[in-house]
Amino acid sequence: MIRYPFLREGTTIGVTAPSYGVAPDMHDLLKQAIGRMEEAGFAVSTGDTVWTQHKAKSAPARLRAEELNRMLQDDRIGLVLPPWGGELLIEVLEHLDFDRIGDKWLLGYSDISLLLLAVTLRTGLATAHGTNLLDLRGRVTDSTTAKWRDALTTPAGGSFGQHSSDLYQVEWKSRPEAEEANPAEAEAADDSVFNLTEPTVWKSVSGGDVGFNGRLLVGCIDVIRHLVGTPYGDVRTFRDTHLPGEPVLWVLENCEMNTADLRRSLVQMKLAGWFDNCAGLMFGRSPANGAVDGYTAVDVYRDMAEELGVPVLYDIDCGHMPPQLTLINGAMAQVEFSEEKGTASVRQIYK
Fold first, then answer.
1. What CATH homologous superfamily does 203-349 map to?
2. Gyration radius (Cα) of the chain, Å
3. Strands of 77-80's sheet, edge to edge?
4. What is the mean pLDDT of the segment spanning 278-301?
């Protein structure tokens, strides 16, 4: 059984940095993002780690864990929302008190996806893979990203639907040196954060329409692969305890790996039993996936489809090329994909 939090209007959002913090030259953007949450009617409680960044982390692991533990155990906080991802969240896992985590949402992606997956696997608490705080600083949020509110306010037993985006981003908007001197003013002159310019086209390995159902598990392969063989990546026990007999639909994305590293990581996950009783795989668009000796990402996807005997979709709205769907670890997902249109619908059911 999966436990689903519910985000109440006007609740407090806890902002902490279990991975990267925000360097001083970006504090204005952080304040702007906090302001957007307050304009939306939320109270915001900001931890000390958010405002610092040194040597690939916001603060030492124990300090990051202490602040995160406080927010996860504080009944006044209904959502923990880090500013963004980073590199070394894995350092805090051994210091977290998983047994005392309250029924509240955690939302994020990239390095934060490691925390989300670990929490769901250890506790059966649903967590939300989607946007981060800094990406919500714009006056206008595209319709795909904006679904985070629907996802977090759907009650247990309910469902919500999403659709593949119309456009996606290849490059971030440039910020000339003069604008960087006053980032708050520069952002105020632009309604949106993302630079959505390219038509979105989801694809399938089979070359045909695809429909599948399964319990979602989601994450950035670069970081979640390091949970294999640890107490925080016990997928088998999670499935036996919380999803007995139910298939899992994995949604994965690659931030920095070439295709050989991607393939090695997926094979490791397969050998660890992560893909047992798998309903299918969905891979997000990636800024990486550099081919190795002609071995492309599509080759990797085809190999996985053949070995697992499951449908595989790719170039979906997930990961480091926004926008992205809000996908709930543990929720039942129903996916319908049209090859002719290159579009898909995703309905998530909180049961």
1. LD-carboxypeptidase A C-terminal domain-like (3.50.30.60)
2. 19
3. 43-46, 12-15, 77-80, 105-108, 127-129, 327-329
4. 98
Parse the chain into domains and list their residue ranges: 12-158, 203-349
Which amino acid, 131? T
Is residue 326 within 8 A of residue 129, CB to CB? The reply is yes
Q: Give residue-wise pLDDT tens across range 121-148.
A: 999 999 999 999 999 999 999 999 999 9
- 129 within 8 A of 218, measured Cβ to Cβ: yes
For 12-158, CATH number? Answer: 3.40.50.10740
What are the helix (H) ranges across 204-311?
Answer: 221-224, 235-242, 259-271, 297-308
Distance in angstroms (rounded) separating the CA atoms of residues 27 and 21: 10
Q: How far is CA 27 from the centre of its chain?
A: 23
pLDDT at 183: 54
**Fold match, 12-158 / 203-349:** no
Identify the three-state secondary structure at position 293.
coil
pLDDT, position 175? 59
d(CA 233, CA 242): 14
Q: How far apart are CA 222 and CA 216, in angstroms?
A: 18
Q: 0.90 cut: is pTM over it?
A: yes
Q: Which two tokens stand for residue 225?
A: 């692969």
